[in-house]
Amino acid sequence: MRKIIDFTDNWLFTKPGEPQKSVNLPHTWNAVDGQDGGNDYWRGTASYTKLFPRPALEPGGRAVLEFLGAAMTADVTVNGKHLAHHEGGYSTFRVDITDVLRDENTLTVAVDNSENDRIYPQKADFTFYGGLYRGVNLICVPEEHFELIKDGTLGIFVTVELSDDLKTAAVKVETQHNGSEVEITLCGETKCVKSGAEFKLDNPHLWDGTEDPYLYTVTARLPGGDEVSTHFGVRKIGFDPNLGFLLNNRPYPLRGVSRHQDREGLGNALTVKEHREDMELIREIGANTVRLAHYQHAQEFYDLCDEYGMCVWAEIPYITHHMEKGRQNTLDQMRELITQCYNHPSIVCWGLSNEIAVHGMSEDLMENHQLLNALCHKLDPTRPTTMAHAFMLDQDSPLIDVADIGSWNLYFGWYLGELEQNDSFLDEYHRKHPDRVIGFSEYGADANPRFQSPRPESGDYTESYQCVYHEHLLKCIEERPWLWATHVWNMFDFAADGRNEGGKDGQNQKGLVTFDRKLKKDAFYLYKAAWNKREPFIHICGRRYADRAEDVAEVKVYSNLSPVTLYEDGKALETKDGRTVFTFKVPLTGEHMIEAKAGEYTDRITVRKVSEFNMDYSFSRKGPVANWFDEADFDSSCYSIRDTMGTLQGNPEAAAIVNEIMTKARASRGEVAQSASSNPALQKMMAGMSFEGILKKAGENVVPAATVREINAKLQKIRK
Q1: Catalytic residue among 227, 284, 355, 568
Q2: Counting beta carbons within 10 angstroms of the beta carbon of residue 457, is it exposed (0 to 12), middle (13 to 18) or buried (19 or more)?
Q3: Does the pTM exceed 0.85?
Q4: How confident is the model at residue 179 (pLDDT cuts 50, 70, 90)?
């Protein structure tokens, strides 16, 4: 019989320069310093030591250590003998320790997350935690047992072929073991075979996404008593350039979020409790897909995705920066990902890389992707491969053709450009490449809930602008049903040690929920209103924006109900029919109780009229973004800063004015301008941006307000 001994407790942790201390797993040494954005973020080698007695083994039995996650490399030593070296911080690996066991044993694991040039990830917008941040087990098996060592295998693999009419399913079960025969049982039927068996299911109960995520269980047993089992689902997936994703022969638009695996105060050392809390929040907004970025996640979370009916994009951490010495590591991580996750019905595609071409293309990069793509199809012919491309990649790049399907990370309206450029980019790509399956893999805007504005603008880090941004992108997505999947970046704020912005160091704040999971930002309720059809609710935005200097306040209500009535101090102001977003104008004179009602559901907030804008609501501490002009400053028959870069560049006189200020911007700071000067795709995108937007993104320290007015005055003298 197989016996699994939990090695969670009683480890001694040693970090250079610090006293040894006792810890339990899961554990990371970056739970604090990897999240605060300071210079104390430590990457290096630390060690974990555990004493344990010799386990009882059957004659010929084996003892195997199982590591569910050791970041980023691990060296395993038992009783002074080095037994294994593993590279890759997100997958399971196992080590046979039988031959070195004593009555009393010392296990030491040296774990290293230091920078190198061969193990991914090395450059990315998230913290690279170190530690034994998932569980460790000691598995004792009889002499005849299922494979444990090779690629952290499950030892059992299920492949389902569902008929076109969904009436019959051929279920192929394959096992890996060292015995002569195996008993495989499915739905009460047992077959005694050498390694694999096929079963037929008539009128199978389908795994049907969030509506009915039914799971079957298959069990394999060896005569000596070793046994393994796995869940699987019966479902048919498809991808169409015009219909998007298909589940069980019907269009099933995938609309959801991306997720990183860390949490404030814990780092990536999560338990099943935290994984389930995350899933409950994702389920609450009504999502039906999760992109598990940018690495292999815990098996517990894939299990939850199976259980909740989430369709999953699973990927390896081949991200941002291609390393010529890292090819083998990408292949190893992909092989482990597929081997360990093969049976999960929730997984619908394998991600090859993310924004890998941002530093340029090379033959080595292309060949790496071709090898990865071939490996995926060899290991799993049933699922397509995909990639997430950065918006600055040329739409005709040969890299796009490598994977079966693709997706784009677009941030127009946040990092650069106008919100409408998300729409135009997707439409242009779909028009140019009508036979390609296209998705929207990342979009988002940072929001610190402390910051609020009556006139939200890109770059202000307000919760208010995050709402404006996502309202536009939600509409963009709803108007393009051919997008096979869309994923908000991100469901949760997450640690990014290199960041120092938006009032919170060391965090990416694009989440719909805060890093500690304690606060749902207003944009959370926008998606809940659009996607959650099971739970009626109503939510008033701006509850953290209590002090308001405006005479008439805009009040937004998100709800999946209609009509919505807004009340001020108990008096009905207006009733509106609609869907998802309801916007009202509310006069302010003092302190007011604002209430929204839809049927039996209600929500309320309190606001108060103040004489001046509350500076605590502004990240810049300069108050809300000021308008540079009055409408009288613009004659539509002449050029102005409100014209796009492309329009201004089309007139030699206007172009000379624009180019002069862009040259100064590059010399001063001009990150966008610097990038655009050497990137044709980015130049094309900037041509669709308003010059006013570019100047605002540069900031007043680069282009002062007086200079902006002077530029506009010059442009207004040039007739169109």
Answers
A1: 355
A2: middle
A3: yes
A4: very high
